[in-house]
Amino acid sequence: MIDIAVSKARRREVLDCVIVGAGPAGLTAALYLRRFHRNVRIIDAGASRAGRIPRANNIAGFPDGIAGTQLLQRMNRHLRQVDGYVVHGTVVRIEQGPDDLFAVSLADQQLWTRNVILCTGVVDRRPALPGFEDVAIAGLVRACPVCDGYELTGKCIGVIGDSMQGEREAAFLQHFSQDVRLIRIAGAHCELDVDSAAEARVHRLPGAAQHVAVSKDRKVFVTMDDGSGHRFDVLYTALGVDPCTQLVAALGARLDERGNLVTDSHCRTNVSNLYAAGDVVSALDQISVAVGHAAIAATTVHNSLLPKTA
Ligand SMILES: Cc1cc2nc3c(=O)[nH]c(=O)nc-3n(C[C@H](O)[C@H](O)[C@H](O)COP(=O)(O)OP(=O)(O)OC[C@H]3O[C@@H](n4cnc5c(N)ncnc54)[C@H](O)[C@@H]3O)c2cc1C
Question: For a tag site, which of 132, 134, 200, 260 has the least CB within 10 Å?
Answer without folding.
Answer: 134
